[in-house]
Each structure stands twice: as C-alpha cells, then as structure tokens.
Amino acid sequence: MKWLLTLIIGAVLGALGLFVYLRQVPHEVAPAVIIPGTNALPPPAPAPDPNSAAVIDGQLPSAPVVTPDLTEADLPVRPTEPAPMTAVNGNSAEVPLGKLMVPVDGVKFSQLTDTYNAPRGNERQHQALDIMAPKGTKVFAVADGKVAKLFTSVPGGLTVYQFEPTEKFAYYYAHLDKYADGIKEGMELKRGDLVGYVGVTGNSDPKAPHLHFAVVQLTAEKQWWKGTPVNPYPLMAD
Fold first, then answer.
1. Is residue 31 part of a domain?
2. Count of domains in the chain?
3. Between 182 and 31, whose confidence is greater?
4. Residue 206's CATH number
5. Pairing mode, if any, of strands 145-153 and 169-179?
6. Measuring CA to CA, which residue among 19, 46, 21, 41 is closest to residue 31?
7. DSSP of 46-74, one letter per residue?
8. How far apart are CA 171 and CA 141, in angstroms?
C-alpha cells in the first residue's frame, strides 16, 4: 500500500513541476519598435469597429470603401426648354418668322450680295442690304404689314417704315425715287404690294441706284426710328 501512495504523490508533484516550468518559459514576441528620438513605444493600433462601414465581414479591406453621396444635382441635366434662337450675325435680336421676298422687281436671291457687315467709314457697319437695280425699278413689300411711317431724311432720302403684324420688327426701304400711288401711313400692305421705286435720293451715289433695305427689331415703345439691326440677307428667299 505504501508503494502505491508514494507513486500517486510523485505523479502529482511531477505535474505541478511541469506546470510551473511552462509558466516560466518566455513566448516569442515581435521585437519592440522604439519611436526615433524618444524612449517611447508607439501606441497600439485601435481595434477595428465592427459597426464601421469600412469593415466587411469582420475584415478590413486593403483599400478604403468609398460610398458616393450622389444627389440630384450630380446627375446630368436634361433640358426641358428648347434652345434659344440662334442670333443672326452674332446679333442678339430675334429672327422674324418666315422668309422675306426679294423686294426689287426682277432680282433673284442668287443675285444678292450680303452687304450687312460692309464698313461705312472707320466707326460703323452698313447693317443693311443694298440691292442694285436701275432707277425706277419697282419695290415691293417683303411681307405683310402696316405702313408705320413715310419719311424723308438726309441719309435715307425718300423712305418707308413698315411694321410686320406682331410689331416686333420693322422693314426699312430707303433711297426711293418716289412712293407708290395711294400709299399712306397706317395702311395695310400685303406681301408683294407695290411700295415705291428704286432711286438715288439721300446719300445714295447718283451713278449707282439701289434699294437700301434693312430689318430692325423694335423696342417695347414701337418707335419706328429705333431698334436693333438684324441682317436681312439670311431671311430672304425667291
């Protein structure tokens, strides 16, 4: 019996000794990194927050996850309004609807020359269309509209100002030799009605009779002598 008791006590003491030995053996650890210039160790990295949007399935991704915060302002804009009307010759004026007829009898559109931007001295442009024709050639209304003013001026000579039906635009006929019979202010003209005859009145060259024709966008006051010039050339057709 004594030998059995001795065996049990020896086994227990051996197990206790092995446990104490294992507790005293140091485990391998990564070498400590000292922050240069100090004796301090760097602070431990914080543990990842499991609720963070950057943590996927408990793992930190190799690159940060970016979730764009798009709003309606970031989306492409689709225009709901039609594009503004293209200006004529860089002019901000609107363009009258429809095509204007060539106002001089016997002259085709293909025979016209765009003289709108032709210089007049060093400070201004022509801003009108010169249609060459023999003196006395008939001049017709380019479109429907009302005779707003019959006027004689130093530069334009014998002139006619015609307002189109919406009274947004005026048509200007100048250097006339004489008016058509019966024409008067306030009367309605139809496209092709006789307005007058080609002449050399005003500052026109007596050797080069022609019709000086202009289009003007009127102001809100509808003043026949005032407005924004518009190039007539692209508005005309046979």
1. no
2. 1
3. 182
4. 2.70.70.10
5. unpaired
6. 41
7. PPPPTTSTT-BTTB--SS--------GGG
8. 9
